[in-house]
Amino acid sequence: MELPYHEDVSPGSGGLPPRAWYAGSDAAVLPLNGSWRFRLSPGADTEDEAFAADGFDAAAWDEVVVPGHWVLQGHGAPVYTNQSYPFPVDPPRVPTENPTGDHLRCFDLPADWPADGGATLRFDGVESCARVWLNGTPLGDFKGSRLPHEFAVGPLLRPRDNVLAVRVHQWSSGSYLEDQDQWWLPGIFRDVTLLHRPEGAVGDFFTHASYDHRDGTGTLRVDSEVAGRVTVPELGIDVATGESVTVAVEPWSAERPRLYDGVLATPGERVPLRIGFRTVAVVDGLITVNGRPVLFRGVNRHEFHPETGRAVGPDTMRADVRLMKLHNINAVRTSHYPPHPAFLDLCDELGLWVIDECDLETHGFTARGWEGNPVDDARWTPALLDRAERTVERDKNHPSVIVWSLGNECGTGRGLTAMAEWIRDRDPGRLLHYEGDPSCADTDMYSRMYADHAEVERIGRREDGGPERRRGLPFILCEYAHAMGNGPGGLSDYQRLFETYERLQGGFVWEWVDHGLKHPQLGYAYGGDFGEELHDGNFVCDGLCFPDRMPSPGLVEYKRVIQPVRFAYDAGTGTVRVTNLYDVADLSELAFEWTYTVDGPVGPGGPLAPGGPRGDTPSASGPLDVPPELGPGESVELKLPDPPAAAGDAETWLHLSAMVCEETNWAPLDHLVACADFPVTARPPVPVAAGERPRRRGYDLTLGPGRFDVRTGELRALGDIALKSAPRLDVWRAPTDNDDGAPWQPDTRYGPLWRTLGLHRMRHRLDGVQADGEALTVRTRVAPAARDLALRTVYRWTSDGTALRLAVSVTPEGRWDEVPLPRLGVRLGLPAAIDRADWFGGDGEAYPDTRAASRMGWWSSWVERMQTPYVRPQENGARADVRWAELRAGFGGPGVRVVGDPAFWFTARPWSTEELDAATHRTDLTPGDTVWVHLDHGQRGIGSQSCGPGVLPRYELWAEPAEFAFTFSVAEAGR
Ligand code: GAL
């Protein structure tokens, strides 16, 4: 049976061969973006071509914006699946129900459109298959959604009333090659452009610009389909195309993205060139650029915008690159397809190493043991080669692109080898990546995703065995640290490995941005919210940024973990050791500063210095004279001025910071690049509030500022503040995506186990209330129904008349050795009017394995602002190392002060854990009449089990006998 064009395996017909993409030439250009006429049909009616004929009246049709996806413009709905094809797997056939969008655009040529020469019509991205007509004449069809496709249209153009007709099928044989983990979003989602092609215009060209680090010279050769001249005025270069020239240059790197402006001039066109000289090679088993090994501090980036899907405008692209740079990210893998071409211009300009990935994934074939996998079926090879060629030809002139990736999760097969051979032949100047073939037969590096720390260490030590060829290769984690929901945990531990073993050349966090789609009722929608019959829920929200690109705590953590400067402090000698961790750059772009604080606000980069009772404590700061010429890998030791004397119960901290000292194209002056905090003095012991005797009247018992109910042993009020809920033991947290884990992960998934055990429904049995001598002692047994597991918990209250101390002692009973606790602490409820918190401890969200970025200081916030808005609500917002916290009604209103002994994890929220746990979207959460305060002695780590290893053993929270205390006092209004 002959299949229609959208179902046959061919890449398309009628188009021009792929070539280099460029913008800004002096040839005329007519963008065809904007409003197009649109009609949606339920099936791929390939017969009815009437709409493409001249004179067709589409006045009654709807309109859509191009670039865009019709499913995000009121026609049909998006579908999210991770690896499952949302249609029966019967390649290359697709369902009869195949939403098909007919698009029509009428245009006139501008008055000054040149009469001579030809014209090319370019589509930068259409999902998933298109057939095109101009003025009634069929031009051809194509597949390859995130790749450019061009047609020669010169003779068909007329000055006025041109009609461009594009029929787009959601499903095609190409869909089998595009099974990436993301929304399925049909439409013309990238630019459509008409390009004038003068006689003698530039065709394809290939800029070869290498750098020889031994003598500091660059060699430039521009091969051009149409001969011409290449000029680079700054370098005095004026040569013919195809001719090599060697001159002294500054090299291009992600850290110092030095570009030289040039021009390629053929008889008919002048094309601007942005030339970066650099040489990429594997030398002695290491990926090097310009002779130096590089360490990827990378991120995987899908193209995504919460309103426009994969139609991503220039502002979003620039914002992405800037945000990456501002967070110390130096590399991006364009998962899992070539991005909009302008994105790579930004990577060249602002400086990011790029792994440019081909638009290819056949993941859904795993369900059939890879049987029928197109990458191992010769009939599909032309389609694969077409994709490889379109990727390489389009992007080959970008210095930032240093690695080509064949695609993602396709298993193995001869089609991949054919692609690799073609790429190597066409572009020997770059390296090849592909993760899915453990033999590494076609690649220059060994790449894995989500390997755990222990395995990565074995690979670093070269103890991982494996095929001969692989053993000699450098290693990268093309994906790691799954940033779904709260997390990822364990980043520092990976980074330590990367910095220890030279074979480990870093990795790329999965992934950059949550793909939550803006939704009127749900806030951000994820899989299943559009009624999909098959979907993968919120697995699509796994980014370091929220959908609106607000950095998540995961991104802030990553920034710190990969900061290019390491600080070490020796309190004994008062010296600091500063190490340059850049791969290429010295430290001349940074200014360093030291600050001592005495239980007070931190220095640069800190949000607020709240003032109040301790805001006026002494502090001192000054510049740290780090030699600007300190090279990569070098260290310097510097003596610091003596710290100020700490008084009374205050403690002294040293804060070190490195800031941008000259504004750059991505960073403002004083942007904080790296920092570290060190304790200078130990925390003074917390005085034990005791001595006062409990006084009883009826069922009321008073102890210092506390009023208790003697029947329950519960604290009812603190001074004038009536508690909504008395402090009591709490072990439950709303499981994070990482607690829940992914079903395919080998480690135990504790989130589901917690629920089975009933940790979310612990009951508190009162065993005795005893008021004698100086203490009120309340004995309880905390346990879930149907189990014999329990936590014997004793609360011992004492007071010195002003402060009220609660000492908690916990003794596990039964077998707790198979399940860690989510948290261990007390929870209390305060009236909702108490809506503001001050605390001395870590600033932002932190958990045991996500606390690298936590900055020690005095912080202040509205309780509502302490919530991290994960798209699917879950445990969030804990602050680490908190010495004391104050909760007040507004600025300076009355409230409660808590001092921890020892320091504690502090969380406050306007809703309960139970509400948080029940919510599926942010919009399910509304503040109630209680502010819930968690004072935790322990928190379980976060890990990355939503698609990776779980919590490392040292960050687990096992149930063990524990003692901890809090001292409560009344915070008077106005102080
Ligand atoms: C990887 C895959 C990504 C994404 C990720 C989990 O296996 O390459 O596309 O699915 O897992 O979010």
Automatic annotation (TrEMBL):
Biased composition (Gly residues): 603-614
Pfam families from the UniProt entry: Bgal_small_N (PF02929), Glyco_hydro_2_C (PF02836), Glyco_hydro_2_N (PF02837), LacZ_4 (PF16353)
One term under GO cellular component: beta-galactosidase complex
Catalytic activity, as annotated: Hydrolysis of terminal non-reducing beta-D-galactose residues in beta-D-galactosides
Record-listed E.C. numbers: 3.2.1.23
GO function terms (MF aspect): beta-galactosidase activity; carbohydrate binding
GO biological process: lactose catabolic process
Family: Belongs to the glycosyl hydrolase 2 family.
Protein name: Beta-galactosidase
Organism per entry: Streptomyces longispororuber
Taxonomy of the source species: Bacteria, Bacillati, Actinomycetota, Actinomycetes, Kitasatosporales
